[in-house]
Write a structure and sequence with these properties.
Layout lengths: L8 E6 L16 H12 L5 E6 L20 E4 L2 E4 L25 E5 L22 H7 L4 E7 L1 H14 L3 E10 L6 H11 L3 E3 L6
Parallel strand pairs: 1-2, 1-6, 2-5, 6-7, 7-8
Antiparallel strand pairs: 3-4
Helix pairs in contact: 3-4
The structure holds pyrazine-2-carboxylic acid and zinc ion.
The site of pyrazine-2-carboxylic acid (VGL) has 8 residues, from α3.
């Protein structure tokens, strides 16, 4: 497959933040290894967007906010079952900053999510309540975007969630496998690959983009 980015394409680099990489609070297995791949891919796109998971202290997705709960336990929230995480990407901290080796000075937009204390947000289109939207779909439409290329952290959650919402919003959607990292490579990541492909997202390699 050969794909050549045009001004109708956007690369969305999801949550390439210290906490999702080696040494961070909620590390993916391979987050630090994909940074050079992402930098190389980003050089081929004029339109690049960064997403940034951006939680206030005491966020409802943190196990520490629920007495007696540990990371990976679940709680029932008004919007459904919430998996609990270690405290991560707290606003203004080192863990919330982009990985220092990420080199995308031409990125046009940084879209933050997860800033509402009571509701989590994996996809940068919409909170997990399925109702509260960020405006990203409208932004992409106004910019004349037709195809969305997705990479970053983590396939199991924020990359997969964003790809599914991009498809739902009518964009042709590609996930760059060697530019994406997983929290649980042998678990939830496999389900995310299956779900996104069933929804019509295409799994590609960075070598397909020329
Ligand atoms: C993410 C879990 C919690 C992600 C963010 O970026 O995939 N996963 N918050
Ligand atoms: Zn988060």
């Amino acid at each position: 497959m050969t794909l050549t980015p045009s001004h109708h394409d956007v690369l969305v680099i999801v949550d390439m933040q210290n906490d999702f990489c080696k040494g961070g609070a909620l590390p993916t297995a391979d987050g630090h290894e994909i940074v050079p791949v992402i930098n190389a891919v980003a050089g081929k796109f004029t339109n690049v967007i960064l997403t940034q998971d951006w939680h206030p202290r005491g966020h409802a997705s943190f196990a520490s906010a629920h007495s007696g709960k540990n990371p990976l336990d679940t709680v029932d929230m008004p919007y459904g079952t919430q998996t609990l995480w270690p405290d991560h990407v707290v606003q203004g901290t080192w863990g919330a900053e982009f990985h220092p080796d990420l080199d995308v000075p031409h990125a046009q937009l940084v879209i933050r999510k997860g800033y509402n204390k009571d509701v989590d947000s994996y996809s940068a289109f919409c909170m997990v309540d399925g109702i509260t939207r960020t405006g990203l779909a409208g932004y992409l439409r106004e910019r004349g975007i037709e195809r969305v290329f997705v990479c970053g952290c983590a396939i199991d959650y924020c990359v997969g969630g964003l790809a599914l919402d991009a498809r739902k919003a009518g964009f042709e959607t590609f996930i760059i496998s060697d530019a994406s990292a997983s929290i649980f490579p042998d678990g939830s990541a496999l389900k995310a690959w299956a779900d996104t492909q069933a929804a019509g997202c295409r799994k590609i390699s960075s070598a397909d983009i020329v």
